[in-house]
Automatic annotation (TrEMBL):
Signal peptide: none annotated. InterPro entries: Inositol_monoP_metal-BS (IPR020583), Inositol_monophosphatase-like (IPR000760). Keywords: Hydrolase, Magnesium, Metal-binding. The keyword Hydrolase applies. This is Myo-inositol-1(Or 4)-monophosphatase. It comes from the Bacteria.
Length: 270
């Protein structure tokens, strides 16, 4: 279904606008190398750099050309509309990595339509990786279409995203997943974890209490690639738990999470 707005911009034009915006934003990121933090948002890990601020301003300006509202991590006092369409963007997902000169960070933009993840663009400029959707059923990496290949637990490499402060049960789950698969990584970027799960570099990615701008673009890409997606939203609809990737692996992690009292995942976002 094509998403329409007041300007009657169709899906193809929306993705073109998003690609132009995200690629322009990566040029700003390229201009900062090991950018210093200019602020904190609640913990030593939750930092803001000048690049975050500059990229946020550019994404809002460029994506507004679509005629849809834009909600950025850096103006996150806005509410997420659940009965219309809007862009949700993370100027830099993996800011700690970025500020330390590590390449695992991404610029991300996702289109929500009635609360559902419909379109997405995620670019990791330091890794030369560009992920995006053409529609809800086609995902591409660097211009090449791909579909997720569902593998079993014995073949699974996984990744987890942690908040700054987590209960002991999350560490227990991490150990259980690490011991029952080929391993569980912590890369510092939820968006890249999900995109790598979508392409099959990983077989699952999971996280708890993620902000919607961290994962919106990547979840749209994973959905278009045919991944199993299990979600649980908080009441504010800004925060969610997720598990994405190969069917058997996602169900395995989901079961372990429930046993540890961490989540009661639902299937997909619709």
């Amino acid at each position: 279904m094509a998403i329409q707005n007041d300007n009657n911009v169709n899906d193809n034009e929306l993705i073109r606008i998003a690609l132009d915006a995200v690629l322009a934003a990566t040029k700003i990121a390229d201009g900062f190398n090991g950018a210093a933090a200019v602020g904190h948002k609640g913990s030593l890990r939750d930092i803001v750099t000048q690049a975050d601020i500059d990229i946020s301003e550019l994404l809002i300006k460029r994506l507004s050309l679509s005629g849809l509202p834009v909600i950025s991590e850096e103006n996150s006092n806005q509410k997420i509309p659940v009965d219309t369409s809007c862009w949700v963007v993370d100027p830099i997902d993996g800011t700690v990595n970025f500020s330390h000169g590590l390449p695992q960070y991404a610029v991300s933009a996702g289109l929500l339509d009635n609360g559902s993840f419909k379109l997405g663009v995620v670019c990791a400029p330091a890794l030369n990786e560009l992920y995006f959707t053409l529609n809800t059923e086609r995902a591409l990496m660097n211009g090449r279409p791909f579909r997720h290949e569902h593998l079993g637990i014995q073949d699974a490499l996984t990744a987890a995203s942690f908040s700054a402060r987590v209960p002991e049960s999350q560490y227990t789950l991490f150990r259980q997943v690490n011991e029952s698969t080929r391993g569980c990584l912590r890369t510092g970027s939820a968006a890249l974890n999900i995109c790598w799960a979508a392409t099959g570099k990983l077989q699952a990615a999971y996280g708890f209490a993620a902000k919607i701008w961290d994962v919106a673009g990547a979840l749209a890409i994973a959905r278009a690639a045919g991944c199993e997606i299990q979600l649980q939203y908080a009441d504010d609809h800004l925060t969610l738990d997720y598990c994405v990737g190969s069917r058997d692996v996602v169900q395995h992690i989901s079961k372990l999470a429930q046993q540890n009292g961490l989540a009661n995942f639902g299937t997909d976002d619709e």
